[in-house]
Amino acid sequence: MILGIDIGGSTTKITGFKDNKIISPMMVRATDPVSSMYGAFGKFIAVNRLQLSDISFVMITGVGASYINERIYQIPTGKVEEFYAIGMGGLFLSGLSKAVIVSMGTGTAFVRAEKSGNVQHLGGTGVGGGTLLGLSNRMLNIRHFDDLIEMAKSGNLENVDLLIKDITIEKIEGLPPETTASNFGKISDLATKNDIALGIINVVFQTIGVMSIFAARTDQTQDIVLTGNLTNVPQSREIINGLSKLHPERFHIPEHAEYATALGAAIAYSSGGKYTEIK
């Protein structure tokens, strides 16, 4: 079995890969990347009742991979460039041969990927999970994703965002009346914390979604694959569906999307892709 490990700043994701299948993906949280990586490795081994001899190769990626400079428990270990892992993992999970893969983490990265292994970083934005938490902390005194998501469930965007129907009674081709004209452009004293929570989620996902569309158009690609932890935010799907009604590009949120980068690291080895072995 090959292990793919995505070592982030606050979370580490790990998955097995064998016989062209993703196996037992899981995540651990820790502030130290080395502790987080070894914690994820130990948890995976224990949960799946494996021996070290069952692991043929370990592939690591992510910002925390720079702290790992020796083999993991003497198992052959390699490092994968993160954008390459994002691209390969996103394609595998979506079943597509070509797409713009969007990795939504603390910030957001846009990657063009082809099944042949051709991967190009198109750019990125600082808008992402860090933006959600930063705004919710400052505006609502909320510091945890789950609390923000729960609060937003009963929110009403019409108390926060300026919509097309608020500024014109005429029909505009391609812009339904409920389309956002300005995020937070109509916030009033009557807006509740629930409304503001939903407004924060909406501005982040609309920004990421529209930038994804622009990246796909620049690359002349029709398919956009969303990956990363933010795919688990339930309100995201309704927001993305709203963008899909306005634009011809196709959005995909595959199963296990949050583990795409870890999976892509494992695939880099199994497919003979690009990686650097740690000696």
UniProtKB/TrEMBL annotation:
GO terms for biological process: coenzyme A biosynthetic process. Gene3D superfamilies: 3.30.420.40. One of its GO terms (cellular component) is cytosol. CDD domains: ASKHA_NBD_PanK-II_bac. InterPro entries: ATPase_NBD (IPR043129), Type_II_PanK (IPR004567). Keywords: ATP-binding, Coenzyme A biosynthesis, Kinase, Nucleotide-binding, Transferase. One of its GO terms (molecular function) is ATP binding. The keyword Transferase applies. NCBIfam families: PRK13317.1. This is Pantothenate kinase.
